[in-house]
Amino acid sequence: MNKLRSRKFLAAPFLILAVGLLPTLGFAEESAPAEESQDLVRLEKYEVTGSYIPYSAEAPAVPVRIVNTADIEATGQVTDLLEVIRKSVPQFVGNGNIGSSNSNIGGGSTNGGSRVQLRNVQTLVLVNGRRAAFSPVSAVGGFDFVDVNSIPVSAVERIEVLKDGASALYGSDAVSGVVNIILKKDYEGAEVGGHYAFAKQFGSVWEERSGRTTVGARTGDGKTSVTISAEWTRSDPLFQNERAFSFDQTGKTSSFAGVVNYYGAESGNFLLAPGATPPLNTDMTGAELVAAGIYTKPDVPISSLFNLSPYVTLALGNERNAVVAAVSHKLTDNIELFGDLLYSKTSTFYQLAAQPIVGMPIFAKDVDNFGVLPFAYTMPQQAQNPFDDYVLVRNRFVSNPRKYFSDTDTLRGVLGARGEFGAYNWEVGANFNDVDQLYRNENVINRVNLANAIDNNQVNLFARTQDPTLLQQANIFGTAYSKNKSSLISFDGRVTGEFANALPAGAIKFAVGAETRRETLSGKPDSGSFTVSDPASPLFGSPSLWDGATTSDNFNVDRSVDSFFAELRIPVVAPTQTVPGFYTLDVDAALRKDFYSDTDDPLVPKIMLRWFPVNDQFAVRAAYSESFSAASLYSLFGPTGVGFSEQPIGLEFVDGRVMDDNVDQAFLRVLSNPQLKPETAKNYNFGVIFSPKAVKGLNIELNYFLIKQDDISGSVNDLTILQDVETNGASSQYANRVRINSFNGSAITGPGQISAAFDEAGGSMTRVFITNFSENFVSAKQDGVDFTVDYVFDVPNVGKFNMVLNGLWFNRFSVEDEDYVGTTNGRSVLNGGTIPEWRGNFRTEMTRGNLLLGATIDYIPSVTDTGASETATDVAADRHVESYTSVDLYVGYNFKGRAGWTRYLDGLSVRVGAINAFNEHVPMSMASWTDANADTATYGALGRAFFVNASYKF
């Protein structure tokens, strides 16, 4: 009942406003033509994302939100394109939108890149209307996405966000919509600028700074135009101990220096006393070591005594150098040559705490892994063991945290020509993209050298600290790396035109085109990072060398795609026909066929209707389309990965035992699947646009969307496999995915074999081996309403006001029939993250002469943490996640028209402001967001930040 009331409340203001303004439509049919004749102007044609056929300057048939330069500046986020998009278009919600916040355990999925997904569903990113290469991180199992962090914000002229499926025009990935980033061109003059921002909390200062310039000129005859933009920007990393909500990271690990799990008399967890030196091989009992003051036996959980936050980043460190150029030349009156070039170098950094050490290396002296465990227990006779029985020693070299660096070079060039002949326009282009990435992971542990160092007494895992000289001599730390590469080369051409006077309502317009492209993807890791091939081997399948590194194998694959598309616009009714109830009616239809070298060949249609019932003040539009997303090259042909399954908490054995959070993991092998099909979707869109002339400057837009996705690729949950096999044995549909003792070991023949293997291993899952892979079996559905109210008006003697309200309301966001609206659920859920029931963004600006005042309010209602217990009493860890309201304030001044020496200030613009001016605290959701205690991708991590932007035009 409460949910129903809240939805009605949300709709009420718009209904009241619409009803109040209905009289301004002018429903008296006989008067409409007279009104139109008085205001008749010649409208220019323009092309907008979502159609290759130009529209007049009236409501297009597609829902497009244009983020212009003023919108970009209003965000205060002049260095981060992802944040510009998120703050300008609140429909970018969920864990598909991730950038600088991905600086923890999941950082390897983006390697410092930034991904955007409209409404958390696959979204195509274009640059100047053409495709860009994916980030090379997908070559090592990361996400497939275009890295918008490689694009300098200062070079962006505008961003067009199409909020509807568009595969019928653009092909793969245009499922939820399209983000088309238009770079600056045809610029005349010169501009230099800079930006500085800082945030101070907990005694630390985070800083961001950037410099930029844009120059452009046109030849005297006007035939040639050159525009060049350059940018440098650098943002500091932010650590967890620098913010209150993430400061407490205790309870997350029991593996740190001084911890020993003792299995003798009075067994338990022991901790080396501060300042104590562990004696060598004294064969003392745990009680004797405690009595001697060497060890303590804490009566609190060991994990509560160690805080990870000083060693783990909350936000990436990021530096970018970029240059963009655009050139055009009028070859003849009817032919123009054009080209653009983008080069960007980004360097990102994030950090995790030092590699946890659980047990001895299994090939050190006097240790025992009982034949199957990935770690070893220390025998009583081992030279460094002060205890009289088997122990599991733990450690962590905190002075050597794991550091992750990604240096990415992006080169993109386009050459083309466009022109016209008669009633037809044409364009051809060649698009070259090359992205190279060097990924480095410092301070991974060389497992061979660590074993030798222990045997030679250079390293003592029982000690709290190590001798720095001996530690350096032991050479146990190394750097893992991978050279990843992604490329895209395409050639395209299209023709647009019309069949004049084909119908009483006017000309039939059309666009036809074709494209051929080749995509490549490769990864070359160092030999020490190769994937584990045999977990039973002491070296885990030599030559695997590193502990703590991301494992991968050499990978090199390509695909080709040939595409053909056509679009048709049919006028049904024109204003000149004066048909009652049909001022204008037209229908658009589009069809695209793609031929893939490695998977199915989709054929996708789209049909759109645009209807003006009375005049050009009120429009109705509707669309149906089909869209798809091709399987990634890595998921089709990637190397086999070997590691550990998720922790099987809740697994119920046939004898009734249920596994808790003390159970370890099974071994997991993940295969690629060349049989994967493209993911498909059906899109439904219905919208209304209201621009009453009686209220000049007011525009209202409501747009209903429905997306039904099928054949989404995903893998069956590890726990689901284990439970079904344990219960049903050989009759389980997953029986062939589980083996005992190795991946090629004993097959499952009956129920209870997993629990039997668990018992045989002394209470460990390490005799259980799972094989898993992606399949097309997941379905999802979402629907809701996008809304925009834009009002520009003047108040005499005060100034000009611009008010914009943008928002999204979800009716449903379901995956496999489970609805996630109003929840936050962490990164592990497909299309998950934080999915609020609605999200709104309101911006107001006042301009008075040279002065600008502005404010932006971003609101996210409360959500439910699905990972939390319903009985939790800790407000930071219960199911209720507080609502969030962030207010940005800014003031700007443009110097112009000055006299005397101050005339040299003409052209200077300065803007100062505060992001999250009232320092709204990040809502905590500790159960689902265990790495930082909150969803920092949605709510941010900085808190209040002050900024100053300045530019000078001359």
Give short descriptive properties of this protein.
954 residues, single chain, 44% strand, mainly beta, five-stranded mixed β-sheet, 22-stranded antiparallel barrel, 13 helices, 10% helix
Concise summary:
This protein is mostly beta strands.
Helix content: 10-25%
Q: Rough shape?
A: globular
Biggest β-sheet description = 22 strands, antiparallel, barrel
CA-to-CA gap between the ends?
60 Å
Q: Structural class of the helix and strand makeup?
A: mainly beta
Radius of gyration: 31 Å
Strand content: 35-45%
Domain TonB-dependent receptor-like beta-barrel: 389-916
Protein name: TonB-dependent receptor
Keywords: Cell outer membrane, Membrane, Receptor, Signal, TonB box, Transmembrane, Transmembrane beta strand, Transport
Family: Belongs to the TonB-dependent receptor family.
What is the topology?
Layout: H1 2-21, H2 32-38, E1 45-46, E2 55-56, E3 64-67, H3 69-75, H4 81-88, E4 123-127, E5 130-131, E6 156-162, H5 167-170, E7 177-183, E8 189-201, E9 204-218, E10 224-235, E11 238-239, H6 244-247, E12 259-262, E13 268-272, H7 286-291, E14 295-296, E15 313-315, E16 317-330, E17 335-352, E18 357-358, E19 367-368, E20 377-378, E21 391-395, E22 402-421, E23 424-446, H8 447-455, H9 468-474, E24 477-503, E25 506-525, E26 546-547, E27 555-573, E28 584-596, E29 603-612, E30 618-629, H10 633-637, E31 641-644, E32 667-671, E33 679-690, E34 698-714, H11 718-728, E35 738-740, E36 746-747, H12 753-760, E37 768-773, E38 775-795, E39 799-815, E40 818-819, E41 823-824, E42 834-835, E43 838-848, E44 851-860, E45 863-865, E46 880-881, E47 884-894, E48 908-915, H13 936-939, E49 945-953
Parallel strand pairs: 4-7, 32-37, 41-45
Antiparallel strand pairs: 1-2, 3-6, 4-5, 6-7, 8-9, 8-49, 9-10, 10-16, 11-15, 12-13, 12-21, 13-14, 16-17, 17-22, 18-21, 19-20, 22-23, 23-24, 23-26, 24-25, 25-27, 27-28, 28-29, 29-30, 30-33, 31-32, 33-34, 34-38, 35-36, 35-37, 38-39, 39-40, 39-43, 41-42, 43-44, 44-47, 45-46, 47-48, 48-49
Subcellular location: Cell outer membrane
Domain TonB-dependent receptor plug: 61-178
Membrane topology: Multi-pass membrane protein
